[in-house]
TrEMBL record:
InterPro entries attached to this UniProt entry: SAICAR_synt/ADE2_N, SAICAR_synt_PurC, SAICAR_synth, SAICAR_synthetase, SAICAR_synthetase_CS
A Pfam family it matches: SAICAR_synt
Reactions that this protein is recorded to catalyse: 5-amino-1-(5-phospho-D-ribosyl)imidazole-4-carboxylate + L-aspartate + ATP = (2S)-2-[5-amino-1-(5-phospho-beta-D-ribosyl)imidazole-4-carboxamido]succinate + ADP + phosphate + 2 H(+)
Alphabetical keyword list: ATP-binding, Ligase, Nucleotide-binding, Purine biosynthesis
Enzyme class: ligase
Source lineage: Bacteria, Pseudomonadati, Bacteroidota, Flavobacteriia, Flavobacteriales
Pathway: Purine metabolism; IMP biosynthesis via de novo pathway; 5-amino-1-(5-phospho-D-ribosyl)imidazole-4-carboxamide from 5-amino-1-(5-phospho-D-ribosyl)imidazole-4-carboxylate: step 1/2
Entry similarity comment: Belongs to the SAICAR synthetase family.
Keyword Membrane: no
Segments forming domain SAICAR synthetase/ADE2 N-terminal: 7-232
Listed name of the protein: Phosphoribosylaminoimidazole-succinocarboxamide synthase
EC number(s) reported in the record: 6.3.2.6
Amino acid sequence: MTKGAMLYEGKAKQVFETDNPNEVIVRFKDDATAFNAQKRGSVDLKGEMNNAITTLIFEYLNTKGIATHFIKKLDEREQLVKKVNIIPLEMVVRNYSAGSMAQRLGVEEGIKSPVTIFDLCYKRDDLGDPLINDHHAVFLGAATYDELDEMYELSSDINDILIDLFDQMNIILIDFKIELGKDSNGKIILADEISPDTCRLWDKDTMKKLDKDRFRRDLGEVTEAYVEIYERLKKVLHK
Ligand code: 5GP
């Protein structure tokens, strides 16, 4: 398998073509951005950690029957994945109040929700990924109502599996964002990454934040948090 031209460069990852039209290589960078790229920086080891963490989580989800784009880890920073057409929606799943929802609703962070909250955002950097509803998503042609139903069900299943996995690591899964894509058969599968960049992860005993909020909010010990998540994940998965 050979690495070809770069197809896409995002804030934290690059995507390269391969000699197989159905497969691409994802490369994880150390670059970090926040608040719609108004804050920029770099976190040592972040690319390697997010590649390793996403690998372990996607492999685990595969064993639990969740279809993902993941094929294999290639090296420290790269993984081979199925090429998908990314659905231009971010699915945010929340178990506790935090971040933009806490701000929007004027509530404290860390309140456990009696129900799972799903926020749909339109993937448009120039608009700041606005919060939208199902009808807007259908209007935009991003998904049909049936596809949205499927996306909510898949996100809920992923949430159940991840809550349990992080619980074993003594971590509360506060919220997370996923991206879904359609494979060559039109099937909706999990794509992108699941890492401390895309989740809020709080230590159960100390409530210490072990995720990208350490970068966003200048809390220090950013690399340490990513490494800590990787170490705990390896331990519970016996890797
Ligand atoms: P919030 O809407 O509270 O800012 O984010 C909710 C959750 O989704 C957090 O775990 C956050 O990390 C994740 N998330 C939402 N949008 C993005 C995004 O554009 N990039 C990344 N890396 N994470 C996001």
